[in-house]
Write a structure and sequence with these properties.
Rossmann fold, 7-stranded mixed beta sheet, 8 helices
Protein backbone atom coordinates (compact mmCIF):
# COMPACT_ATOMS: atom_id res chain seq x y z
CA UNK A 1 0.00 0.00 0.00
CA UNK A 2 1.52 3.30 -1.09
CA UNK A 3 0.72 6.72 0.30
CA UNK A 4 3.59 8.16 -1.70
CA UNK A 5 6.10 6.86 -4.21
CA UNK A 6 9.27 6.28 -2.24
CA UNK A 7 10.69 4.13 -5.00
CA UNK A 8 9.39 2.56 -8.17
CA UNK A 9 7.55 -0.63 -7.20
CA UNK A 10 8.33 -3.84 -9.02
CA UNK A 11 4.62 -4.61 -9.19
CA UNK A 12 1.33 -2.99 -8.25
CA UNK A 13 -0.72 -6.13 -7.70
CA UNK A 14 1.09 -8.60 -5.48
CA UNK A 15 2.43 -11.48 -7.65
CA UNK A 16 0.52 -14.07 -5.64
CA UNK A 17 -2.73 -12.14 -6.21
CA UNK A 18 -1.89 -11.82 -9.91
CA UNK A 19 -1.27 -15.58 -10.10
CA UNK A 20 -4.53 -16.24 -8.25
CA UNK A 21 -6.50 -14.00 -10.64
CA UNK A 22 -4.87 -15.60 -13.68
CA UNK A 23 -5.87 -18.99 -12.33
CA UNK A 24 -9.55 -18.17 -12.82
CA UNK A 25 -9.24 -17.01 -16.43
CA UNK A 26 -10.89 -19.23 -18.97
CA UNK A 27 -9.47 -18.80 -22.46
CA UNK A 28 -11.99 -19.34 -25.25
CA UNK A 29 -9.43 -20.95 -27.64
CA UNK A 30 -5.89 -22.46 -27.49
CA UNK A 31 -4.49 -19.56 -29.58
CA UNK A 32 -4.66 -17.30 -26.49
CA UNK A 33 -2.03 -19.40 -24.68
CA UNK A 34 0.04 -19.67 -27.84
CA UNK A 35 0.29 -15.87 -28.06
CA UNK A 36 0.87 -15.50 -24.31
CA UNK A 37 3.77 -17.96 -24.52
CA UNK A 38 5.28 -16.17 -27.49
CA UNK A 39 5.01 -12.78 -25.75
CA UNK A 40 6.59 -14.24 -22.61
CA UNK A 41 9.47 -15.73 -24.60
CA UNK A 42 10.07 -12.49 -26.50
CA UNK A 43 9.44 -10.10 -23.62
CA UNK A 44 6.76 -8.40 -25.73
CA UNK A 45 4.24 -6.32 -23.75
CA UNK A 46 0.70 -7.68 -23.99
CA UNK A 47 -2.21 -6.94 -21.68
CA UNK A 48 -2.21 -10.49 -20.32
CA UNK A 49 -5.14 -12.76 -19.50
CA UNK A 50 -6.64 -10.86 -16.54
CA UNK A 51 -7.00 -7.57 -18.41
CA UNK A 52 -7.82 -9.46 -21.61
CA UNK A 53 -10.74 -11.09 -19.86
CA UNK A 54 -11.99 -7.64 -18.83
CA UNK A 55 -11.84 -6.46 -22.45
CA UNK A 56 -13.82 -9.57 -23.38
CA UNK A 57 -16.46 -8.83 -20.74
CA UNK A 58 -16.89 -5.21 -21.80
CA UNK A 59 -17.24 -6.34 -25.40
CA UNK A 60 -19.97 -8.79 -24.41
CA UNK A 61 -21.75 -6.02 -22.50
CA UNK A 62 -21.48 -3.26 -25.12
CA UNK A 63 -21.98 -5.53 -28.19
CA UNK A 64 -20.06 -3.03 -30.34
CA UNK A 65 -20.56 -3.00 -34.10
CA UNK A 66 -17.39 -0.94 -34.67
CA UNK A 67 -14.18 -1.09 -32.63
CA UNK A 68 -10.94 0.86 -33.09
CA UNK A 69 -7.75 -0.39 -31.41
CA UNK A 70 -4.67 1.85 -31.16
CA UNK A 71 -1.54 -0.28 -30.70
CA UNK A 72 -2.41 -3.87 -31.59
CA UNK A 73 1.00 -5.53 -31.44
CA UNK A 74 0.46 -9.05 -32.76
CA UNK A 75 -3.14 -9.18 -31.75
CA UNK A 76 -3.40 -10.52 -28.21
CA UNK A 77 -5.82 -7.85 -26.95
CA UNK A 78 -7.65 -8.04 -30.28
CA UNK A 79 -8.16 -11.78 -29.74
CA UNK A 80 -10.26 -10.95 -26.67
CA UNK A 81 -12.28 -8.33 -28.56
CA UNK A 82 -12.86 -10.52 -31.61
CA UNK A 83 -13.84 -13.54 -29.52
CA UNK A 84 -16.70 -11.50 -28.04
CA UNK A 85 -17.80 -9.29 -30.95
CA UNK A 86 -21.27 -9.88 -32.40
CA UNK A 87 -21.61 -11.34 -35.88
CA UNK A 88 -21.05 -8.74 -38.61
CA UNK A 89 -19.04 -6.36 -36.40
CA UNK A 90 -15.80 -4.77 -37.61
CA UNK A 91 -12.57 -4.02 -35.81
CA UNK A 92 -9.67 -1.80 -36.90
CA UNK A 93 -6.20 -2.87 -35.75
CA UNK A 94 -3.24 -0.49 -35.91
CA UNK A 95 0.49 -0.86 -35.49
CA UNK A 96 3.72 0.64 -36.78
CA UNK A 97 4.96 -2.83 -37.65
CA UNK A 98 3.42 -4.63 -40.65
CA UNK A 99 4.77 -7.99 -39.43
CA UNK A 100 2.88 -7.60 -36.17
CA UNK A 101 -0.32 -6.98 -38.06
CA UNK A 102 0.23 -9.96 -40.36
CA UNK A 103 0.73 -12.17 -37.30
CA UNK A 104 -2.37 -10.67 -35.68
CA UNK A 105 -4.44 -11.62 -38.75
CA UNK A 106 -3.07 -15.15 -38.61
CA UNK A 107 -3.89 -15.57 -34.89
CA UNK A 108 -7.32 -13.94 -35.22
CA UNK A 109 -8.11 -16.16 -38.19
CA UNK A 110 -7.81 -19.17 -35.92
CA UNK A 111 -10.86 -17.97 -33.97
CA UNK A 112 -12.97 -18.27 -37.13
CA UNK A 113 -15.32 -15.50 -36.01
CA UNK A 114 -17.73 -13.81 -38.48
CA UNK A 115 -16.13 -10.39 -37.94
CA UNK A 116 -14.39 -8.04 -40.40
CA UNK A 117 -10.79 -7.25 -39.46
CA UNK A 118 -9.06 -4.20 -40.91
CA UNK A 119 -5.31 -3.82 -40.35
CA UNK A 120 -3.81 -0.35 -40.69
CA UNK A 121 -0.02 -0.01 -40.71
CA UNK A 122 1.59 3.22 -39.51
CA UNK A 123 0.71 5.83 -36.93
CA UNK A 124 -2.42 4.71 -35.09
CA UNK A 125 -3.59 8.25 -34.36
CA UNK A 126 -3.25 9.31 -38.00
CA UNK A 127 -5.35 6.31 -39.03
CA UNK A 128 -7.87 7.00 -36.30
CA UNK A 129 -8.20 10.58 -37.49
CA UNK A 130 -8.76 9.43 -41.07
CA UNK A 131 -11.21 6.61 -40.35
CA UNK A 132 -14.80 7.84 -40.23
CA UNK A 133 -16.72 7.21 -37.02
CA UNK A 134 -18.79 6.70 -35.09
CA UNK A 135 -17.28 3.87 -33.06
CA UNK A 136 -18.87 2.00 -30.18
CA UNK A 137 -15.61 1.02 -28.47
CA UNK A 138 -12.06 2.38 -28.64
CA UNK A 139 -9.04 0.81 -26.99
CA UNK A 140 -5.67 2.57 -26.47
CA UNK A 141 -2.32 0.89 -25.91
CA UNK A 142 0.13 3.08 -27.85
CA UNK A 143 3.13 5.17 -26.80
CA UNK A 144 2.18 7.02 -23.65
CA UNK A 145 3.23 10.49 -24.82
CA UNK A 146 0.36 10.29 -27.34
CA UNK A 147 -2.38 9.38 -24.84
CA UNK A 148 -3.76 12.94 -24.50
CA UNK A 149 -4.42 12.99 -28.27
CA UNK A 150 -6.25 9.67 -27.93
CA UNK A 151 -8.67 11.14 -25.38
CA UNK A 152 -9.49 14.15 -27.59
CA UNK A 153 -9.94 12.11 -30.75
CA UNK A 154 -11.88 9.31 -29.05
CA UNK A 155 -14.34 11.88 -27.75
CA UNK A 156 -14.98 12.99 -31.35
CA UNK A 157 -15.17 9.47 -32.76
CA UNK A 158 -17.19 7.60 -30.15
CA UNK A 159 -20.96 7.68 -30.15
CA UNK A 160 -22.54 9.03 -26.97
CA UNK A 161 -22.55 6.13 -24.52
CA UNK A 162 -19.58 4.56 -26.29
CA UNK A 163 -16.67 3.10 -24.36
CA UNK A 164 -13.00 4.16 -24.22
CA UNK A 165 -10.64 1.63 -22.61
CA UNK A 166 -6.93 2.32 -22.06
CA UNK A 167 -4.04 0.39 -20.57
CA UNK A 168 -1.18 1.43 -18.25
CA UNK A 169 -3.00 4.16 -16.33
CA UNK A 170 -0.99 3.39 -13.18
CA UNK A 171 2.29 3.09 -15.09
CA UNK A 172 3.94 0.93 -12.44
CA UNK A 173 3.23 3.59 -9.83
CA UNK A 174 4.99 6.44 -11.62
CA UNK A 175 1.74 8.44 -11.66
CA UNK A 176 1.55 8.43 -7.85
CA UNK A 177 2.68 11.52 -5.95
CA UNK A 178 5.34 12.73 -6.23
CA UNK A 179 4.71 12.06 -9.91
CA UNK A 180 7.63 11.18 -12.16
CA UNK A 181 8.36 14.05 -14.52
CA UNK A 182 9.26 12.07 -17.64
CA UNK A 183 7.22 12.61 -20.79
CA UNK A 184 5.46 9.25 -20.71
CA UNK A 185 4.19 9.67 -17.16
CA UNK A 186 3.12 13.22 -17.96
CA UNK A 187 1.29 11.90 -21.04
CA UNK A 188 -0.63 9.40 -18.94
CA UNK A 189 -1.47 12.06 -16.34
CA UNK A 190 -2.70 14.46 -19.03
CA UNK A 191 -4.89 11.66 -20.42
CA UNK A 192 -6.17 10.91 -16.91
CA UNK A 193 -7.13 14.55 -16.33
CA UNK A 194 -9.09 14.51 -19.59
CA UNK A 195 -11.04 11.31 -18.89
CA UNK A 196 -12.01 12.63 -15.47
CA UNK A 197 -13.65 15.73 -17.01
CA UNK A 198 -17.15 14.88 -15.83
CA UNK A 199 -18.92 16.81 -18.58
CA UNK A 200 -17.30 14.58 -21.24
CA UNK A 201 -16.62 11.20 -19.64
CA UNK A 202 -17.59 8.98 -16.72
CA UNK A 203 -14.40 7.12 -15.82
CA UNK A 204 -12.91 4.58 -13.45
CA UNK A 205 -9.37 3.26 -13.23
CA UNK A 206 -9.41 -0.43 -12.39
CA UNK A 207 -6.20 -1.31 -10.55
CA UNK A 208 -5.51 -4.69 -12.10
CA UNK A 209 -2.07 -5.32 -13.60
CA UNK A 210 -0.83 -1.83 -14.65
CA UNK A 211 -4.23 -0.09 -14.35
CA UNK A 212 -6.99 -0.04 -16.96
CA UNK A 213 -9.26 2.95 -17.49
CA UNK A 214 -12.89 2.52 -18.41
CA UNK A 215 -14.59 5.67 -19.68
CA UNK A 216 -18.12 6.13 -20.91
CA UNK A 217 -18.47 8.97 -23.38
CA UNK A 218 -21.31 11.28 -22.39
C1 LIG B 1 1.99 -2.63 -25.69
S1 LIG B 1 2.08 -3.14 -27.35
C2 LIG B 1 0.40 -3.56 -27.73
C3 LIG B 1 -0.04 -4.82 -27.19
C4 LIG B 1 -1.45 -5.21 -27.54
N1 LIG B 1 -2.41 -4.16 -27.26
C5 LIG B 1 -1.76 -6.45 -26.73
O1 LIG B 1 -2.09 -6.32 -25.55
O2 LIG B 1 -1.64 -7.52 -27.28
C6 LIG B 1 2.13 -1.60 -28.17
C7 LIG B 1 2.16 -1.72 -29.69
O3 LIG B 1 1.76 -0.49 -30.21
C8 LIG B 1 2.62 -0.11 -31.26
N2 LIG B 1 2.60 1.36 -31.25
C9 LIG B 1 3.00 2.19 -30.25
N3 LIG B 1 2.70 3.46 -30.57
C10 LIG B 1 2.10 3.43 -31.79
C11 LIG B 1 1.57 4.41 -32.66
N4 LIG B 1 1.58 5.70 -32.35
N5 LIG B 1 1.04 3.99 -33.82
C12 LIG B 1 1.02 2.69 -34.17
N6 LIG B 1 1.50 1.71 -33.39
C13 LIG B 1 2.04 2.08 -32.22
C14 LIG B 1 3.95 -0.77 -31.01
O4 LIG B 1 4.56 -1.08 -32.24
C15 LIG B 1 3.52 -2.04 -30.26
O5 LIG B 1 3.40 -3.13 -31.13
Amino acid sequence: MWTSRPEEPEFLVHPSVETYLKGWVHRPHPVFREVEQRAEAEGFPIVGPVVGRLLYQFTLLVKPRRVFELGSGYGYSALWFVAALPEGAEIFLTDYDARNLADARRYLGQLGRPVTIHTLEGDALAHFRETPGPFDLVYADIEKTRYPEVADLAYEKLRPGGLLLADNLLWRGRVLPPEAQDEKTQGILAFTRRIFQEDRWVSTIIPIRDGVSVSVRR
